Amino acid sequence: MKIHPREAALMLATAGAALLGATILLARPKLDEWSERRRQRQETLAQIEREQRLLATGDAWRNQFEELRQRMPVYPADKKMDVHWLSVMDELAAKHGVSITRRQVGEEKRVGDVYELPIEAREWEGSLEAMVRFLFDLQAQGAMLDVRQLFVRPKEQGKPDVLRGRFTLYCAYLREPGAAAPAAEPAAEKTTPKTQGSEE
């Protein structure tokens, strides 16, 4: 049987296509694996670079932490801190004419050497100026006082200058080494009479 050149070319093309297809099918898993390894390598290199940058700034972070630590107040290990921080907050609120009528003390938490006590002021009332001055004074105390949540709304439709809302104040401090910190009392809600200078 005689094979014409055209038929031979078609057979070669078919055989080449079949060989190419088989090669792709066999090599595809290896190509996918290679691509995945290349991606993982790039991610690992990027992570190493990030961690090296963090390590390079380690001294700066340590210095900043030590500076903050020196500014942080230190209290006896057995002192109950809820009364102290409530009195600080109430004193500043009264000074600026902000009325805090409902508040609740959360549980003291320890993170490393630092203790943190959250106080939730569930209802406050006052003017915008009074609240700004109160918040500014909280930050200026030198103690680590941080208002992390603050909700504000007008008291009434016709009184846009009187505001009300709630906020959560976090108090951070250190304790002297010694006896364990006092057990926290159940976080009961405390209601206080309105301070002078607030509107009904």
List the defining traits of the structure above.
Alpha-Beta Plaits; 200 residues; elongated; alpha+beta; seven-stranded mixed β-sheet; 4 helices; 47% helix
Outline the structure in words.
It is a single chain. This protein is of the alpha+beta class. Helices cover 47% and strands 30% of the residues. It is built from four helices and seven strands; from the N terminus they run ααβαβββαβββ. The chain has helices at residues 5-56, 58-71, 81-96, 128-139, and strands spanning 74-75, 99-105, 109-111, 114-127, 144-156, 159-175, 189-191. Strands 1, 2, 3, 4, 5, 6 and 7 form a seven-stranded mixed sheet that branches. The chain is elongated, with a radius of gyration of 34 Å.
